Amino acid sequence: MEQFYKRWLKTTPAILDALFYNTPDEGSQTLTVLHVGGRNAYRLANYYDFVLPIILFLSLSLPNTALGEKCYCPTAPFIYMISDYIENIAEKYILEIYSKQNDSMMTLACYAGLKKICLERQNCHLTFFYTHNLAVSLNQPNLSSVPTWERNGITFVNESIVGVKNTDVFIDRKNSIYILSDDKKQIIVWHNNSINPTQTISADFLSFSSIFVTPNGDIYISSEFPSFHITRWISKTKIFTKVMNTSHHCYDIFIDINDSLYCSMSMNNQVSKVNLKSSSMNTIVVAGTNSHGSNPNELHHPCGIFVDVNFDLFVADTENNRIQLFPFGETNAITVAGWQSARPTINLNGPVGVTLDAKKYLFIVELEGQQIIAEGPYGFRCITGCYGDGYQSIGISFPSSISFDSFGNIFIADFINQRIRKFQLENLCGFPLNIPRFCSKPVWNRNGITFTDQSIIGLNPSSIFIDQKNSIYSLNQEKKQILIWNESNIESTRINLSDFSYSYSLFVALNGDIYIDDGINHRIKKWTLNTKNFTNEMDVFSSCFGLFIDRYNHLYCSMPEHHQVIKRNFSEGIPAIIIVAGTGNQGSTSTMLTSPHGIYVDTEFNTFVADCGNNRIQRFELEVKVGITEVGDSSTAQHQYSLSCPTGIALDSQRFLFIVDSNNHRILRSGTNGVHCVIGCNGISIKSTKLYSPSNLAFDNFGNMFVVDSGNNRIQKFQYSKNSCDMSSIIQWTHSLTLTKDSQLYSQDCNEENHYYESFQIEVPENRYYSIWSSADFDTSAFIYEKSFDSLHPNENLLTKDDDEAFDNQFKLELPLYNNIIYVLVVTTRYPMKTGNITIHMSSLKNVNVTRLSTLVNIQSNYSSQLTTNNPKYCQDYKNLSHYYQALQIYVKKTGLYIIWSKSEIDTYGFIYKDNFDPLKPLHNLIVYHNGACNQNQLKLFINLQENTKYIFVITTNYPNTTGNYTIFISGENHVTISHFFDSKQHNYSAEVQCQFYSTTAGLSSDSGNQFYSTTTTGLSSDSENQFYSIQISSVLIILMFIEGLINNLFILF
């Protein structure tokens, strides 16, 4: 049975360990991001709860009874089991409807989970076999997303107790603390959170280096004399016995849940183990090769080790400045932190200790860096010794080991300072604002919903804050009010700011206190939630456009008028103003700012500044006044991208920057995959009108984005498309096409070159990123249009294109598409007049509706003739009879789309009229026309022709008095009849006849997509003759009225 549990456990902890959360929203998000395999495995794991509750009660409660624990403990496992059962049932319900948010069920799961944590802290034996609680005997606390510890720490014990050489500290799950004193040859023990030592164990050995204590109280220590070995002190007999011989000194020892004892031998560059259940003390090498190196199977001076419940071995590879993970049974390691890591982590400087919390996040001791590094969902960060103050009384100097108590407090063996330091866990809740977790390419609905408008928020709003409960805060500057919308409330609560003037920003602390800019009065004020009173909190030089509070309780202010960012530490007795960035003078160097606006401080205390006047985003590391350009035009920028007065900034949990690019009226997202527009995005020829001079943004805990749309005096909400990051089951659409000499032609840049193409209409089922790419034996290009594509106006409605030489000379488009928009994909070639086979690929999660639009050229008729001086003229220029023309009558046998084009050495111009054509009235009955633009100066007409309808096609020239040969081609559904159109009046016009030009409003075909210059309408009505005579009559009446008025004036004068 034990082996069955271990085999089953081996397949599930990776899933179960990921499911930690502190709020209903965090829990729902955690369950949502599981892929199909993860969800199925987690369901399978939870189904064990239906058959094991009695076994759990017996296996957990009875051992506590036998161990003589206090009366609460025998029942605690049963309560724990019930809580775990309720939590899993709630989670299972969420999993079955994982695409939806269910606060009530998730709250139930959270409550049960918190009850489990409370029980874990009652010092009862709650270790059991079916979840992550099957753990080693030391503490692995369940911490929040961004825990914080007291910066300075306190001295738990000093040299007077532990002597001058203490290298290791161990804390068991009952919070008993064990410390080795080498010079006193003692093991000193503090049981049950006692202040003073409660036990000392004499150990007549030399050169202690490491200690480990098992749940039954047996103590294992490594020493060097009289030989290199590990000794066990048996708690029942109080005697020492040798359990492992080693070839060299063990820097660290560890015992896994299967009673295997591990030893890291720094000088041998190896980690070996022995099975304590075996009578043999023969060791097995599990990591390293006995020679130093930096390959995956090598180590260089390994120190601290940790073995998790999966028997995966973590090694602090000191001289290689990395943490190595050796999966169970593997000799090649994966670098999980430091040098040569497969993913960006952190640079390490002499790591000597490593441990894991309950979520399998790393905590690393740096000997040379003299820091403690913590991993979390947002990456790595320094948590103690971060300021280079190791030799001062408050710091640590050459720390050698780390251990947690059950409350999450950290104990450090501070080797040089000859003491043990304790760092109290302070913050269990993380940031007060939301730090959502997105994938690399999330999508929001690009049409915002107005959350609040000018009637509520006033003119020119600039502030917004959303806490983890989704309460939304903003300021009405005109009415001097703080506006608060609690979650699910439509109406806002209002707090009056009687003595404030033009407050630009606010920030809400974890305890609900609100910090408000009152910079015009040279101060920041705090509204205290408990007392409902205002107090002065910080003096400033001018208004703060941005306010921020970091996790160490520093209050930051960005002052556009003074070109600086400053902060104040409220943890200090007499807090002083500290300059974070800027010199006080405007400028564009790396130490200067010009009108800084929004600010954001991450968990590593990097300060990000929206440097509006310099059109860039600057990052200032802790206590460094030289900024790094993250986004901007500079050649040194991490991402070169043009900004125009960025005013707001935020980070998600993946450290992607969200930037309010104010003067470009858009929101950008910047990260490892470049800079992308997410809201208010323009296409190549499409201008967005979603935002106007936005100033700030914030997220709720669902990932929805709220943007302060200052120019429109409102706050806009953009819904996050949750499915946009789901890539669990990709569907790939493919289509093969052949570009031939019968394919449609167009000019990509309206020049002298033509390209064959095919076009497709695309309708997507959901908002998300889509990939569209080609495979062919020649260079391909692709263009995406919104709504429609007109080959004679290829720059209209153009959203994006890919015609460069990347991706093996094949086009590849990755872009967000939205389900309420029709797109047109044009597939063509990079070089003109190329033909061949192309396969188009498109990936999505659901079937995409793709319809072919273009048809092959199918010439039904052609007609060749010439324009000579014998041809009639007509009023193309609406002034004189100056252009030779020929009129042809067209009949079609089948209604459909037809294409008419010319080939000629002269520049041609084409017009199509319905029913009749009068050369003196060029707009009368006109339905479509083309002057040769974007077609090498040759006419080309796309038109839907109706059967049994008379059409007159007029071919003429762009320039007056031009003659030459031409050929007309017609492609379409069926045969087309072309004949001469003869009007008995057309040869009777003299040069003196004046053209009759007027505009009406009827009937240019929408198929052409053309415009009759910029001064004409798009069509003419069938009753234009009546309109013409009405104009003539009106003109006569106006002249008569003028004459009458003139006569009356003469009578008055005389």
Automatic annotation (TrEMBL):
Report what the protein is called.
NHL repeat containing protein
Q: Which GO terms describe its biological process?
A: proteasome-mediated ubiquitin-dependent protein catabolic process; protein polyubiquitination
List, alphabetically, the InterPro entries matched. 6-blade_b-propeller_TolB-like, NHL_repeat, TRIM-NHL_E3_ligases
Q: Where are the transmembrane segments?
A: 1029-1053
The GO terms describing molecular function are:
ubiquitin protein ligase activity; zinc ion binding
Q: Is the Oxidoreductase keyword given for this protein? A: no
- The NHL repeat boundaries are 685-721
Q: Which domain of life does this protein belong to? A: Eukaryota
Q: Which UniProt keywords apply?
A: Membrane, Repeat, Transmembrane, Transmembrane helix
UniProt KW Ribosomal protein keyword? no
Which species does the entry assign this protein to?
Adineta ricciae
